[in-house]
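User: Just a sanity check before I run the rest of the batch. Below are the structure tokens for the first item. I only need the designed sequence back.
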């Protein structure tokens, strides 16, 4: 039998037998996995349902937090302004339409305002316990709670009748209605802005789940052909259960399943007949803030539809397996041919080699078709021929050994030269490193010198300005017009020189690592408005138009307020200096996620494109000649850049000659993220 036929039979057996065994084993194992797959499917569906409840709770919490932190709202609490508080609750309903219950209470849990006249607040109910926890922790909490409806709304009111659940086929015939409500309850403390620790009241918001189609519909939109139900005391208070026989299942009794425990969470899995269908379901307990069981959430799917999905997958696996089997048989046959062809060719070459090179006549008349036998005979003859040639190889190796010793000597010489070269490179590198260290020391000494000389200059300068101020204010006697002019010139020049010295000191502090940030929380509008008012006071006869836009209208920033003001003051001073009469200066401030973005634009003389990088270099100016039109030291923009980067922000400059300049910078809203950036 030829080697090609042997390989073909081997490949077919190696492919078909394991594939058949695998298909049979997978068929039996597949049936045992159905229940596990059902549980896995419903577990994933349950996570989707719980996530929808969590997202809705976050909406309630965010709405309450925004209102509680509003200074205007806190003033309404302090004044006990009932009308204003009622308007605030109306705003909550507009911003959060699914807030079914909303009240405002004072520091002693007394009722201050409620969203609807029919709402009821009893501070000795579950609300009192939750409010005590809120006041102690001074932070908002969320809890799923079950309340009697008369603890939330007046009996027979519109809301009371809307949320009461009619029980279908109750076990206790005397009770036809479930007068309890499951409510997602959010309580947000109102902490006084004055001291940041006193609780002056609380906001209670609730989302009633009774007859609420939001969660079932939201869930079904994500998990097709599945349903969701929420039950209290074993009665479904909301549901979108769908069966071929139809029917409304809110108010019906929820089934009881087999208890299972996964990752410490108790769940209940089982089957229930709904209409003409069998549904598989998974229930999970809903607990309140104290960990008490208050309700049950369940998800389910008709078993027939689930098995259809499984069957489709099973058929798909079978089809793919058969297709792979056919492909593997074809590929195996092709592979056997590819593997056999080189062996057949090698056998023919061996026969030719034996007949010609080895001078063996019997190679021409082999009586077998087995390529292995032919190759074995050929290799035996080749082995004998190789032994005869081994002596020649030994002589060749001896010559190669001699040549190898010569090459080894050359390699040793090359290694010695390489070591010398490495030593020279190491010495040169050491010289360069020491030179670099000297440069760093010189730079540090320069910064220290600038700081010291600035301190020394400021002391006599303060004395000069103090004397000039005394003379200007006529404390030592009246001066004539010419004397007043010279004294005013001395004082204004001193102010200019003092600003220059302060800028040099700031630059030196940053360069030597001594500049620190005094972080505090403040409203950006107050800080910027004071700078704009200050700049407006000295623009003089230039008649500049300065506009300020903040979006949102105001927001909190955690930063060094004095350095933020210094940044805006330097930018506005440059804008005023380089903007001609009648020009415009625009200030825009935006809240972008976790950063503040500020833009200062002017219609001034602008900067050429090739000079944009120079303006951020200390003591550099675009016009550095002695007869330049605009005075300055070239420290404004470099100082702005260093102060912004000290806060962890970035600066961007855009300008066009003759059109104007735009400076944009960002500052992180929460400097607590910059643990290593408090010091320069």
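Assistant: Here's the designed sequence for the first item:
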């Amino acid at each position: 039998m030829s080697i090609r036929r042997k390989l073909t039979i081997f490949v077919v057996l190696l492919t078909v037998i394991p594939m058949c065994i695998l298909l049979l084993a997978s068929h039996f194992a597949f049936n045992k996995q159905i229940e596990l797959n059902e549980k896995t499917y419903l577990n994933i569906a349950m996570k989707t349902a719980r996530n929808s409840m969590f997202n809705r709770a976050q909406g309630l919490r965010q709405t309450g937090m925004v209102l509680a932190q509003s200074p205007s709202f806190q003033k309404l609490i302090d004044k006990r302004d009932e009308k204003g508080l009622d308007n605030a609750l109306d705003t909550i309903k507009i911003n959060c339409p699914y807030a079914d219950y909303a009240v405002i209470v004072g520091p002693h849990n007394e009722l201050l305002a409620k969203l609807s006249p029919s709402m009821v607040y009893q501070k000795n109910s579950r609300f009192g316990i939750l409010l005590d926890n809120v006041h102690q922790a001074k932070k908002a909490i969320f809890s799923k709670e079950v309340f009697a409806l008369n603890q939330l709304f007046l009996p027979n009111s519109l809301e009371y009748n809307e949320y009461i659940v009619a029980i279908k086929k109750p076990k206790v015939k005397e009770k036809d209605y479930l007068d309890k409500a499951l409510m997602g309850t959010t309580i947000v403390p109102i902490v006084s802005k004055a001291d940041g620790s006193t609780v002056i009241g609380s906001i209670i918001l609730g989302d009633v789940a009774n007859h609420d189609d939001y969660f079932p519909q939201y869930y079904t939109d994500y998990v097709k052909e599945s349903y969701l139900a929420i039950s209290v005391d074993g009665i479904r208070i909301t549901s979108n259960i769908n069966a071929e026989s139809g029917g409304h299942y809110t108010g019906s009794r929820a089934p009881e399943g087999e208890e299972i425990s996964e990752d410490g969470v108790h769940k209940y899995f089982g089957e229930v007949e709904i209409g003409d269908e069998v549904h598989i379901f998974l229930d999970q307990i809903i607990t309140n803030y104290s960990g008490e069981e208050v309700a049950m959430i369940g998800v389910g799917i008709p078993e027939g539809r689930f098995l259809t999905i499984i069957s489709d997958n099973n058929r798909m696996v079978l089809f793919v397996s058969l297709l792979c089997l056919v492909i593997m048989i074809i590929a195996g046959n092709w592979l056997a041919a590819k593997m056999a062809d080189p062996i057949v060719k090698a056998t023919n070459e061996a026969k030719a080699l034996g007949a010609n090179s080895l001078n063996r006549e019997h190679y021409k008349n082999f009586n077998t078709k087995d390529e292995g036998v032919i190759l074995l005979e050929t290799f035996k003859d080749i082995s004998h021929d190789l032994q005869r040639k081994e002596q020649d190889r030994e002589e060749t190796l001896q010559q190669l050994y001699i040549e190898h010793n010569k090459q080894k000597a050359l390699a040793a010489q090359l290694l010695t030269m390489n070591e010398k070269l490495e030593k020279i490179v190491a010495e040169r590198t050491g010289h360069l490193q020491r030179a670099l260290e000297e440069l760093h020391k010189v730079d540090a000494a320069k910064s220290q010198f600038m700081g010291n000389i600035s301190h020394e200059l400021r002391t006599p300068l303060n004395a000069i300005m103090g004397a000039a101020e005394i003379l200007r204010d006529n404390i030592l006697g009246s001066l004539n017009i010419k004397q007043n002019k010279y004294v005013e010139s001395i004082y204004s020049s001193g102010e200019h020189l003092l600003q220059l010295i302060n800028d040099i000191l700031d630059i030196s502090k940053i360069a030597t690592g001594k500049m620190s940030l005094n972080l505090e929380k403040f409203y950006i509008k107050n800080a910027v408005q004071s700078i704009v008012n200050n700049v407006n006071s000295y623009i003089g006869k230039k008649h500049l138009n300065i506009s300020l836009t903040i979006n949102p209208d105001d927001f909190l920033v955690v930063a060094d307020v004095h350095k933020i003001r210094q940044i805006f003051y330097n930018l506005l001073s440059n804008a005023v200096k380089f903007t001609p009469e009648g020009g415009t200066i625009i200030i825009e401030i935006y809240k972008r996620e976790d950063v503040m973005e500020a833009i200062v634009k002017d219609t001034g003389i602008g900067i050429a494109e090739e000079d944009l990088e120079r303006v951020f270099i200390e003591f550099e100016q675009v016009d550095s000649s002695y007869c330049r039109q605009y005075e300055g030291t070239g420290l404004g923009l470099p100082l702005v850049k260093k102060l912004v980067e000290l806060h962890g922000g970035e600066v961007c400059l855009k300008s066009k000659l003759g059109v104007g300049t735009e400076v944009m910078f960002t500052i992180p809203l929460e400097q607590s993220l910059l643990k290593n950036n408090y010091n320069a």
